[in-house]
Every structure is written in structure tokens, then in C-alpha cells.
Amino acid sequence: MKQSTRLAHIMGTLLWLLTAMEAAALPALCESEDTVSVHCGSTPSAVFDSDNRHWVAFVQNQHVYVSYSDNRGLSYSKPVAVNSVAEDAEHNGENRPKILVDDTGVIYVSWTLKTSPRFTGEIRFSRSLDNGASFEAPRTINDDKLFAGHRFESLFLTESGHLYLVWIDKRDLEAHLARDEEYGGAAIYYAVSEDRGATFSTNSRVADHSCECCRIAIAPNGTENIAILWRQIFGETTRDHAIAILTPEGNTAEMHRASYDEWQINACPHHGPTMVQSAKSGDYHMSWFSNGDRHQGTYYGRFSFADKQAHDVFRVDGNPGAGHPFLAESGNKLYLVWKGFDGSQSLINLITSTDDGRTWSQAQTLFTTVAASDYPLIVQHEEGLYLSWHSDEFGYVFTGFSDELRSTASD
Q1: How far, in Å, CA of 221 to CA of 282, rounded?
Q2: Residue 66 has what pLDDT?
Q3: What are the pLDDT digits (tens) for 338-388?
Q4: What is the largest CA-CA distance in the chain?
Q5: d(Cα 276, Cα 76) in Å, to the nearest integer?
Q6: DSSP assignment of 300-366, as one string?
Q7: Mean per-residue pLDDT, 74-96
């Protein structure tokens, strides 16, 4: 066994032992509301910076907090509140704070502020210029000044340094209602910063008639454009997916239908997609959930802008309760995790592909729990990928996708 492999195995074993020890101590750790911890909070999002520091944003007691680890999750720094004044930050699986760190060390955090009426909110943003010691006063990025729905934001930083914020917006619904006109669903809007979050552009509309409450997936398209994938309303009640290319100037360069599941439902499934660009083909790996007439379950497909359709569509899991997938690619290997259910407990499952999504491995179960748990996320690192996941049983889990760890999880 090579030394690097031995070290990875040792680190993996330590992480698993620590997870078990912290799980036993969680009730005592989190019983006090004064204890702020990534293990006691909810809906964590994570990222690595250029110095290999692991940053986490989470919500607890109406604050968005940021903490970091220099030892791959063995311990964490004292959390710092992003919003000094408490506000009702959304914290459910499809609506969580996002965190990014650029190559100069600027930390960007976004979240949705839930305002008093049902399904209304504001898109909030802050940044830290002192390595997470403090954060600027939060700003509202939606510029319509309406007491309306602005929710489910996604944050992305391109290679060129353009910072994109994309979200679901109901300003157009409000305008149509004021004119006594019908309007299905919501809309997709975005804004862009070209000065590391100091200012943002005016808001630009991507599409009318999006679904109202599903997360939006983002991947790069060249050095400064992005591709986004979201649940869209086609016709009157068909809620499948659309994909588009956005530019920093506020233009939608292309927009196409990405999935053909024929899900007829006049409601929001709270079930958004995931997407990553292929390093091999440049196509877009996608995964999503549907309960349509044509497809039912969690699916994978690879969308090509060349012929404007998805290829190698594959049902990942057709069992009831399975869904909320997340995709990532590392070393020409594609990873897909999702939350499953076997009738009595939740499962965190993994499959991999080494041929650009044409064929897949057998599913492996990484974790099981009967307690409440979050959806799994994957965090990119130059050495590989890490699972980021929270549950009431284990607290916050951050662990690498090495062969040793998967073997340990299966034992």
C-alpha cells in the first residue's frame, strides 16, 4: 500500500471514529440554545479555499454562521455570524445558505430571508474581506422592492471572476395579478457582480413560468458564462426541466427543454435538479427527480447543447422516498449521491461512472439513519471529493470519497 493511500486510510478511519464519538455526544452538545455549532445548526453548505481550508455556512437561531476547519472536519473554528441582527433565514433542504471563496480569500455568502407572508422573501448577500473574522452588513440583491417571493437562490463564481446570483422570483406574478391576468408559477432572475461582490448589476429575467420552489443548478459555460438547470412549467401543468446559458451582460444566450418526464402537477414538488459539466465531452451531466407519466423516480441524463437533447437517460432509483441527488466530477470519474429510503430508514447512496455517464457502478450505501437528516452534497477539492451531510444522529458529516471510506461504510 502506498504511503499516500495509507495516510488516506488512517485519516478516513479517524473521521469515521470521530463521527461515531460526536454522534454519541450530540444530545449533550446541542441541548443548549447558546451552543452554536455546525453540528447543532441546519442546512450546511461547504467549500474549500485555495489554501485547502474547509469553510461551512449553516443556519442556527435566525443567524447564518460561518466556520472553518483546517483538518478536514476533525474540529471547527468558533462560528462567526454573517448577519449580526437576527433574521428569518430560510433553512430547509432545497433552500440553504451558499458559500464561496475566491482566489484572493474573499468569502461570499448568500441566503434567502423569509419575510412575513407565506412564500415571500428577499435574496440576501454578504462578504468577508478579512478571512472570515467579520462580514459586511447584509444586502438585498433583488432590486424590485416588492413584498413578493424571491427565494431559492444559487451562487456561482466563474473563472473570469464574475459572481452570479440566480433565484426564483414572483415579481411578474404580482404584476399580472395587479392587471387581473393569469400567470403560472414564478420566474427565474439573476444578477452579476464584476467587482468581487462590491456591487451587482440590475436584475435580469431568464424565463417566465418557472416552478416556484425548487433549487437551481449552475455549472460553467466557458470562462465567464454559466449554464443553469431548473424546473420549468411547460404548457399548463407539465413540470419538467429547462436549461439555459446566461451571460454577464444579462442575456439568455440559449434556452431548451432538458427533460421529458411529463409530470402533470399543479403544485411545486420541492425537488430541484443537480448539474455538472463534463470534462470529457463538455456536455452537462444532470440528475433530477420526477413522478411523471413517462418517468418516475430519480434519473440521470447528459445534455448536449450541440443537438439540444439529453442522452443516456437512466433511472438511478425508482423506490418511493428516494431523491434529492447531487453530482460531481473528479479525475474523469463522475459521482452521484442521493437520499434513499428502504421503508424504515434513510440511506445516503453513491454510484460512479468512468465513461461520461454511459454506464454506472452498483449503488453503495454510505450512511443509514432513522433520525431526521438533510440531503447529501458533494464538495470539490484538488485531491478528490468530499461528502457534506447533516443528520440529527451524526451531526455534520464531512468525509472523503476514497475507496477505503466506502469500504468502511459498507462493513
Answers
A1: 9
A2: 98
A3: 999 999 999 999 999 999 999 999 999 999 999 999 999 999 998 899 999
A4: 71
A5: 29
A6: EEEEETTTTEEEEEEEEE-STT-EEEEEEEETTEEEEEEEEE-SSSEEEEEEEESSTTSS-PPPEEE
A7: 95
d(CA 96, CA 113): 10
Where do the structural domains in the chain lie, given as residue ranges? 1-35+273-411
Q: Give the model confidence (pLDDT) of 238-278 as tens digits.
A: 999 999 999 999 999 999 999 999 999 998 888 999 999 99
CA dist., res. 308 & res. 394, Å (int): 42
Between 117 and 391, whose confidence is greater?
Answer: 391
Dig out the grid coordinates for 165 from the structure: 446570483
Q: 3-state DSSP call for residue 388?
A: strand
Q: Are strands 309-317 and 63-69 parallel, antiparallel or unpaired?
A: unpaired
The residue assigned the cell 441524463 is: 301
> How far from each other are the two terminal CA atoms of the chain, in whole angstroms?
20
pTM above 0.90, yes or no: yes
pLDDT of 11 = 47
Q: What is the residue-averaged pLDDT of the chain?
A: 91
Strands 309-317 and 225-234 turn out to be unpaired
Write down the pLDDT at residue 25.
61
Q: At residue 266, what is the residue type?
A: N
The set of residues, in sequence order, having a beta carbon less than 8 Å from that of 346 and lying 6+ positions away, is: 321, 339, 340, 368, 369, 370, 373, 391
CA distances from 390 to 148, 304, 373, 378 (A): 31, 33, 6, 12
Q: Over range 150-167, report the average pLDDT.
A: 98
Which helix or strand (DSSP H or E) is residue 18 part of?
helix 3-30
